[in-house]
Structures are given as structure tokens and as C-alpha cells.
Amino acid sequence: MCNLYANTTSQAAMREIFEVMGQRDHLGNYRGQTGIWPKYEAPVVRISDDGERELVEMHWGFLTPQVSKKTGKPIKPAAWNNARDDKLRSSGLWKDSFLNRRCLIPGSAFREAKGRNPATDYWFAIKGSDARPPFAFAGLWRAGQPGIDDETGDWLTHTIVTTTANELVKPVHPTRMPVILDEQDYGTWLTGSAENAAYLLRPYPSGQMRIVREGIGITSDDASAGGD
């Protein structure tokens, strides 16, 4: 389960990498984020109503209503920040978005924690000539949160698709890891058929990844703080 990631890629680089025209960049002045938590906003690449790629900010995690078991009254909504690859075409929470609203979620690293009291944090990134080469998670998005009555009910939200852990991630999180897409597959994920998109849901090769930070309480991937 991924509940923390970073995106330190510059706005200009995101437009180039994800082939987004300047007028389709709706991020304002984006400064990069060394730690992105569920319910907070982050950049997402989606297909607009007129069929063009655009950069927008969305809150992380599809929201579903909850009620208190004691009082029966509404409480803070649950945020579903991960979608299992084997549930995308069967779960009512994910199915429509998988068929109609797939997106790219720009990232530069993601964190998994191991152990408890205290847990050790491990930040994973892909290999490349840069300290944190940019990449994209496979994502889903939706507009509006059914059953949520306050202002959060109007949120645009995204979720990260997860798959089986590879050999690098498995010692830290034995079962799951985010789906990282190859750059040549961005178009297929965004606009390809459900069958072709499903084919991309596989672990990223462990030999093309590395652990870039490790330690207790490392809850942001601030490369300037050291730890590589």
C-alpha cells in the first residue's frame, strides 16, 4: 500500500515529458512536493473533454462516506488512495474510472514503511542520470464524491493503481507496490482499450529501481537533506 509519494519534477519538465501544451497546464506556479499525503492535492495528467492532455491538480484518494458505529452520524470520509489491479474491472468503486477515466500521476519517488514503533521508511525511485528521474504512476480519477455532502464532495480526486511487489520492494512491503508505467506506454494507459491498459499492470523491473533514502521518520523525500 502506498500512502506517501513525492513529485519534485519541474512544471516545465512535466509539460515536456507528458506532452501537455502550455495552455493546457492548469497548475499555476507549481514548486514540487517532497511529500504528498492522501487527501492533499498533487498534479495529474488526464484527457480533457476535447481529447487533449492537460495538467490539473487533484486530491489524492477517492472519498467514500463513513458513519460512526457508536452514534450512526457521519464522520470524516475514507480516502481510498490505492486501487488493486485485480479489482479494477469488478469493484464498483473503480470500474467506471478504469474504463473511462485513467490518468498519469507524475512522481519522483514513493515511500513504504517497514516495522513498527518505530517504523523504518524506505524511499524508492527509478534509476537514471538524475538523482530522482521523473516517472508516472498508473492512476484513475473522478469528479465528485458520491454521498459526501460538504465541500469535499465536489473534489477532483485520483488514486494510484497497485500490483504485485517486485524483488526490491518485497522485503519492505511483501505484497504490493504502485504501478509505474514505461514512458512509451503513457498513451495506451490514457486512451487505449481496457484490455491493452490491463496488460500494463505489472511490477516495474527491480533492476531499474533503487532505494534512495532510508531511515526512521523519513516522511519526505528531500534530496537536499541527504540520505542517498
Automatic annotation (TrEMBL):
Task: Kindly name one Pfam family recorded for this protein.
Answer: SRAP
Q: Which GO terms label this protein's molecular function in UniProt?
A: lyase activity; peptidase activity; single-stranded DNA binding
Q: Do you know which InterPro entries this protein is assigned to?
A: SRAP, SRAP-like
Keywords assigned by UniProt, alphabetized: Covalent protein-DNA linkage, DNA damage, DNA-binding, Hydrolase, Lyase, Protease
Output the GO biological process annotations, alphabetical, semicolon-separated: protein-DNA covalent cross-linking repair; proteolysis
Taxonomically, the superkingdom here is Bacteria
UniProt keyword DNA-binding present: yes
Q: What is its EC number?
A: 3.4.-.-
What top-level class of enzyme does the UniProt entry assign? Answer: hydrolase
Matching SUPFAM superfamilies, A to Z?
A: BB1717-like (SSF143081)
Q: Which family does it belong to?
A: Belongs to the SOS response-associated peptidase family.
What is the recorded name of this protein? Abasic site processing protein
User: Origin organism of this chain?
Assistant: Paracoccus aurantiacus
